[in-house]
């Protein structure tokens, strides 16, 4: 009863459509429901639609049905091909959304896909911002994500109250695609950091040091990081349940190495880590969490995987 009262006391809240209810999209959309927004969702898995309905949202039968009455359409799908699949074509968002609707694409995709989407949407009277996130599944659940935005200032301002229900650090980085460029840099830093942690873990274990004690003290000094805080237990327990899948990080290393080459930036260490991520995937570990970079270092070191 109290949530109905809260809804009726805030009639001006935008109606939200959410496309893509995966590891990130499910908890994020639930945070919007908790904040009092109405959310109509669509995704490919029935169990995720059931989860949304159970949390108080509405499950739609198609993208068209989800977006037709929405003021703001949030998308959170794996990569550029999926963003293009949900945006374009007769069943897609651009053909079925209201004029004046705002698309907030939170997927991590190539900057060029975001630029093209904004341009194509504008021709239909629909606005877009790119708003990829960092902080992982835990950050999504706890609503403490970092959100890096590209697009127009007015659209950022309009989306900000919604984004504040999902994250803590929310920054407009520049024009369309800028959020994706910053996210690509984020993925470079995270992958290199995980790789360094994984190498340290194998080195410490082979040296016979108490790993738990070592990681605790390391995390209190300059070597400490959010990566180490969030992934320490994955390393200690060899628990590689995702989280953030190697398949997705492989996609992101492709985005960052390609974007860097386009602007003439050299990423020597990033290129090596991109190869290690690709190798993990080729060995069948693509569905594991990215902390499974530890398995690659173990294989290289002749340690038990
Ligand atoms: P996921 O694979 O768990 O979820 C993706 C969802 O998209 C699925 O539920 C799927 O049904 C839906 N989808 C795909 N194609 C669709 C279509 N045509 N129509 C409707 N729904 C469709 O992925 P995730 O881990 O939630 O990641 C989503 C995005 O967020 C990715 O771009 C990823 O790189 C980024 N990201 C993930 C994390 C993380 O820790 N998992 C962290 C930051 C950013």
UniProtKB/TrEMBL annotation:
PANTHER family referenced in this protein's UniProt entry, alphabetically: 3-HYDROXYISOBUTYRATE DEHYDROGENASE-LIKE 1, MITOCHONDRIAL-RELATED
Residue span(s) of domain 3-hydroxyisobutyrate dehydrogenase-like NAD-binding: 177-296
Species whose genome carries this gene: Streptomyces venezuelae (strain ATCC 10712 / CBS 650.69 / DSM 40230 / JCM 4526 / NBRC 13096 / PD 04745)
Principal EC category: oxidoreductase
Family stated for the protein in its record: Belongs to the HIBADH-related family.
Keyword Oxidoreductase part of the UniProt annotation: yes
Top-level division of the source organism's lineage: Bacteria
Documented EC number(s): 1.1.1.60
GO MF terms held by the record: 2-hydroxy-3-oxopropionate reductase activity; NAD binding; NADP binding
Active-site positions on this chain: 183
Record key words, sorted: NAD, Oxidoreductase
6-phosphogluconate dehydrogenase NADP-binding domain location: 16-174
Protein's UniProt keywords contain Membrane: no
Gene Ontology biological process terms, A to Z: glyoxylate metabolic process
NCBIfam families cross-referenced by the UniProt entry: tartro_sem_red
InterPro entries named in the record: 6-PGluconate_DH-like_C_sf (IPR008927), 6PGD_dom2 (IPR013328), 6PGDH_NADP-bd (IPR006115), HIBADH-like_NADP-bd (IPR029154), HIBADH-related (IPR015815), NAD(P)-bd_dom_sf (IPR036291), Tartro_sem_red (IPR006398)
The name this protein goes by in its record: 2-hydroxy-3-oxopropionate reductase
């Amino acid at each position: 009863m109290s949530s109905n009262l809260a809804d009726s006391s805030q009639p001006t809240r935008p109606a939200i459509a959410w496309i893509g209810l995966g590891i990130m999209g499910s908890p994020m959309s639930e945070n919007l429901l908790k904040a009092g927004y109405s959310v109509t969702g669509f995704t490919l898995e029935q169990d995720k639609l059931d989860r949304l309905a159970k949390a108080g949202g509405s499950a739609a039968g198609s993208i068209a049905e989800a977006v037709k009455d929405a003021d703001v359409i949030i998308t959170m799908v794996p990569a550029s091909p999926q963003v293009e699949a949900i945006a374009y074509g007769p069943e897609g968002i651009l053909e079925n959304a209201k004029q004046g609707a705002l698309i907030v694409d939170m997927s991590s995709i190539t900057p060029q896909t975001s630029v093209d989407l904004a341009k194509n949407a504008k021709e239909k009277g629909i606005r877009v911002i790119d708003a990829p996130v960092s902080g992982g599944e835990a950050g999504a659940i706890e609503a403490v994500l970092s959100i890096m935005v590209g697009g127009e200032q007015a659209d950022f301002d309009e989306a900000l109250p919604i984004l504040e229900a999902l994250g803590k650090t929310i920054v407009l980085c520049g024009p369309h695609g800028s959020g994706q460029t910053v996210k690509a840099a984020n993925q470079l830093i995270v992958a290199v950091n995980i790789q360094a942690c994984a190498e340290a873990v194998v080195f410490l274990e082979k040296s016979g040091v108490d790993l738990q004690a070592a990681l605790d003290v390391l995390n209190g000094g300059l070597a400490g990081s959010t990566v180490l805080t969030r992934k320490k237990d994955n390393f200690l327990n060899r628990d590689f349940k995702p989280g953030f899948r190697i398949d997705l990080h492989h996609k992101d290393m492709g985005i960052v190495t390609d974007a860097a080459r386009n602007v003439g930036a050299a990423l020597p260490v990033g290129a090596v880590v991109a190869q290690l991520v690709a190798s993990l995937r080729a060995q069948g570990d693509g569905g594991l969490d990215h902390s499974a970079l530890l398995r690659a270092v173990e294989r290289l070191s002749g340690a038990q995987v």
